[in-house]
Amino acid sequence: MTSPFIPVDHPTTYRCIGLVQGRYFPSLDSFNSGILLTEDAPPFPATLLGKASQWLQNNPDRITELHIWSTWIRTLKESPGLVFRLVRIHSLANVEGQATSETINYFSIRGTIAFQNDGQIGIRVARNRKPPASEAQTKKWQPFTIVIEGSIPDATPNQFWEFDCRRIGTRLVLENGKLIQDAPQQPTQEQKKQRQQQRQKPQPAPVAQPETHLGDAMPPVSGKMEITLKISEFPGNAKTVDNGWKEFEIDTGGKLVTVRVKPKAFKKLEEAQQNYPMWVAAIVGKMGAATPKGFILEEPAIQVFEKKPKEQKAETNAVASGVA
Length: 324
Hints:
This protein is mainly β. The chain has 2 domains: about 15-180, no CATH class; about 225-310, CATH 2.40.50. It is about 15% helix and about 40% strand. It contains 5 helices and 16 strands. The strands form 2 sheets. A 6-stranded mixed β-sheet has the order 11-15-16-14-13-12. A 5-stranded mixed barrel has the order 1-2-3-5-4. Strand 15 (about 280-290) and strand 16 form a beta hairpin. The model is unreliable at about 95-100, about 210-220 and about 315-324 (pLDDT under 50).
C-alpha cells in the first residue's frame, strides 16, 4: 500500500501519524478535549488541534458527524491504550490525494528503538526541530515512547526504523518495518581513555587488514514473525474440522496460507457476509509449520470492518468537500 502521507525530507525525520475514522464528542469542560468513537473499540481520549479545531468551531452543527481524521498518537503508562490528537479532517477520496478504504487505520511511525520484548516494540519519537531555549525542558518538547505489537528480530536499541502499522481495536499492530540508520556505537570509559592516550602519541602508518565478514562468525538470531492477512471475500472453501473449528486457505499470490479458527471467530466472517455489502477482514497470526504449498497461520485473530458502498462514499466526499 502506498503511504497517504507526504514523504519525509530527511532519512531520520521522526513521525507518528495515522488516519482514523470516527465521531468526536467534546467534553463539558473543553471544546478541544473529549473522546473519539470508532466502530470497533471503546472510546479513545482525544484532543482537537490546528485545522480540525478551527473547522469544527466554524461548523458546530457538524461536530459529531463521522469524519476521517489525520491524527498524532501516543500511548500512556498511566492509562494503557491509544490517545489521539486530531489535527485535520478529510474526505474518504482525498487524504493527501491518495486515500482508499485501506488507508483508514494505517499509521506511519518513525523513530529509534527504545526496547523490544514480549511481542512489543517501544519506539522513541522526538520533535524534528530544536526547541526554544526557554522551553527546552517543558513537557511538550520531550521525546515520548509509542508501543506497538510485533517483533523485528534484527532490531536493537537506538536504531532508527520506519514502521507501517495497522490499528486493530485498541492496539497498533506491526505490518512492515524498515531499518533507516544503525545505532551509533558508544565508546566505553576504557576506550575513551585509550583514545586519549593514542592522541598523545605519534601514530604509526596504517597497516592493511584482511576483510572480515560478521556473518561468517556469528550465528543467525532466532525470532518470531507476525503476519497480517487481509481478505474482502467470504472463504467459500472453508470446511469443518475437529471440535467444529473452521479451516480455509488464503492465496497470497503463490503461497497458500492455511487458517484454522474457532466457530466464534469464523462467525465474524459469516456476519460480515450477511450484513455488509462490502467489508474487509484483517487476520493476524504467526507463521507456523510449512505445508506443500505454503504454511499454517498459528494463533489467528480476526477483525472485520465494513467498507462503505460507492454511493455512500460519494455522499461522504460531498459533505467533506473543502475540509481537507
